[in-house]
């Protein structure tokens, strides 16, 4: 196992992490911004008003992007497990 191989696997894992997390984080951040603007305009500062829309948005993203996320993770894990024999021997 070479240092270059370890760095490549680590880089691929971090890029995969960012690629999978971005849809959920982006949507939740946008919903949070909209809710905070709504709270600032109406001066309604209820904690559930900030939490529930973000939760619903995150669930909606998981419903739509979940199969893509799982298949991407499975592909990465399969490639990693299949590369074990070349690394060991």
From TrEMBL:
> Which Pfam families does this chain map to?
Bac_export_3
What organism does the record attribute this protein to? Simplicispira hankyongi
Q: List the NCBIfam families.
A: fliQ
Its name, as the record gives it, is Flagellar biosynthetic protein FliQ
State the gene name recorded for this protein: fliQ
**Transmembrane stretches, by residue range?**
13-35, 47-70
Tell me the superkingdom of the source.
Answer: Bacteria
Protein family per UniProt: Belongs to the FliQ/MopD/SpaQ family.
Q: How does it sit in the membrane?
A: Multi-pass membrane protein
GO BP terms: namely: bacterial-type flagellum assembly; protein secretion
Q: What does this protein do?
A: Role in flagellar biosynthesis.
Looking at the keywords, is Magnesium present? Answer: no
Q: Which PANTHER family match?
A: FLAGELLAR BIOSYNTHETIC PROTEIN FLIQ
Please name the taxonomic classification of the source.
Bacteria, Pseudomonadati, Pseudomonadota, Betaproteobacteria, Burkholderiales
Instruction: List the subcellular locations.
Output: Cell membrane; Bacterial flagellum basal body
Q: Which InterPro entries match?
A: Bac_export_3 (IPR002191), FliQ (IPR006305)
Entry's Gene Ontology cellular component terms = bacterial-type flagellum basal body; plasma membrane
């Amino acid at each position: 196992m070479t240092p270059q191989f370890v760095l490549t696997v680590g880089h691929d894992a971090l890029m995969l992490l960012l690629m999978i997390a971005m849809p959920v984080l982006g949507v939740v951040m946008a919903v949070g911004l909209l809710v905070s603007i709504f709270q600032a305009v109406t001066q309604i500062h209820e904690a559930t008003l900030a939490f529930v829309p973000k939760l619903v948005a995150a669930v909606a993203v998981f419903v739509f992007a979940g199969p893509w996320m799982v298949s991407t993770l499975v592909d990465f894990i399969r490639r990693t497990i299949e590369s074990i024999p070349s690394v060991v021997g």
